Amino acid sequence: MCGIVAAASQNNVVNILADGLKHLEYRGYDSAGIAVIENENIHSYKKEGHVSELTSILGKDLASNIGIAHTRWATHGKPSEANAHPHISENSIAIVHNGIIENYIEIKEKFFKNIKLESETDSEVLAHLINFYAKDNNILDAVHSALKEVKGSYAIAVLDKNNSSEIIVARHGSPLIIGVGEDSNFIASDAHALIEHTNQFIYLDDGDMASVSSSEINIFDKDKNSVNREIKKSNISLGSNSKNGFEHFMLKEIFEQPEAVKATIQDRIINNSVPKEILGPSAEKYLDGFKVVQIIACGTSYHAALLAKHWFEKLAGIPCQAEIASEFRYRKHAVQPGTLSICISQSGETADTLSALRQIKEEKNYIGTIAICNVPESSIARECDSTLITHAGPEIGVASTKAFTTQLVALMLLIIVLGKNFEISEEIEKSLCEQLQTLPEKIKSTLDLDQEIAELSKIFSNKEHALFLGRGSHFPIAREGALKLKEISYIHAEAYAAGELKHGPLAIVDENMPVVAVAPNNVVLEKLKSNLEEVKARGGKLYIFADKKAGFKSDEISQVFEIDAPLNPVAPILFTIPLQLLAYHCAIIKGTNVDMPRNLAKSVTVE
Ligand code: M6R
Questions:
Q1: Distance from Cα 474 to the centre of ligand 1, integer Å
Q2: In angstroms, how far is CA 446 from the centroid of its own chain?
Q3: pLDDT tens column, 216-241
Q4: Taking the model in full, what pTM does it have?
Q5: Which of 2, 320, 384, 433 is catalytic?
């Protein structure tokens, strides 16, 4: 988390830094700061709160050819001006840091026992350590020596008062890219921050360092050998960061889902069949030999994994486990030979998922790794054997919406390909392809519920708690609905498999407890109806999102919202849409910051 932007130019960099920070705010937004070198001195400006708070204190005539900037998501130390980056040592070295220095207390004890730190951060210690080494070394060597002492993850950009033409950068475990310009070069946590200035990027490898001036970029590996890294052209378009007339990114992204789904299936379904070539040439390594599938992910991506487990087992007869990455990485595994691992991640930089992937690659019983990811240049996409990109386009709202539905679509394409050696017949493949192709239109019709759901939110947003119920492949959708609601409206919401209700949660149902149910017209419909009767009998208020053929009618206790979701495997995707809208409208009524909800960040690149 946290966003870094830096620039060295023949021109003034202040606006480049300020604009870059605005594009990176999704990575953290509790405080922001900027440092530039002017008249051979480091000048730094910091402010608690959003980037706009910082830009409001930057003088109009502030000018410099070199600078670093940061937007923070607090890990060590509360959000405050003192804890905001850049951190400065003796007015000589300024750094911005993304990641966690795990041994910062040991470093402080070893080198700076008697120094009183100005902040509570791990990053400040690193600034002092670099300054310590810079007393006898050039700045590149100083950064290299300092980083040898460090345990943890980092992406850093360093300014040295005595070297006003170069920025030193380094990364290990946290993303950092270099943007290549004409008479300027740039550094950022991701390409969106720089796309107005360049579409040429160098993706640093883990352990790389670089010195970047307005005219030169020199890259070194972890042993300080000079190395070349390819310059890649990015396809991100200039308009992709805008709200396109919508009030919030989240709403825009909800409404983009028909197009995003279309883009994700485009060229991947040919004559109602999905060619194995969608997985690239490395698929040969695992396609014929895998026996079981294990999916690793966090948050919303984990909910996609839970639904995929149902699909893998029901449609293809392939045994499948879904694992939360942060749990997976710290437990011993009994891995079956021939296990194919799938990592799902919108950002492709989630630290827990990335770390789990790296463990998997060390273990001999895994036959291959596949990424389902929205960012082609991300670490997870690059480190897996095969990558199936979800063509959702940039997702800026912290609450994942179109990333989720396109992950599900990509997973279905994957299941079709992988399942051909198992139980997916030509007939099943054809039917699944047809369902996927009608999905964009069906999502469009489901979005028509928007106004009805906005009305419902007027009642719902007064509640402090909510229960979400679903069964089978719709239980992950109920979980995702509950996550969306708590994430942006701060209403406490929990999801249960409806059959579990009587095993405990029913105790909290009374007239103040809204219960949201996801009700497809499937084999467990009658069971679900009985579960909902249990709620009614306790006076609970029901809000039922039901397939129009499921036979629910609104009455004084239940309000029914009809969805045209024919009984087929992709139906759960459609039930996602109204739950996203419910969360959005509740958040609007509650006046929360929808796109940047409190305490969260879009890309979780720390543990
Ligand atoms: O980028 P990833 O998909 O790996 O992110 C995983 C979670 O952090 C993410 O899905 C998070 O739960 C979302 N904010 C949920 O809306």
A1: 19
A2: 25
A3: 999 999 999 999 999 999 877 766 66
A4: 0.82
A5: 2
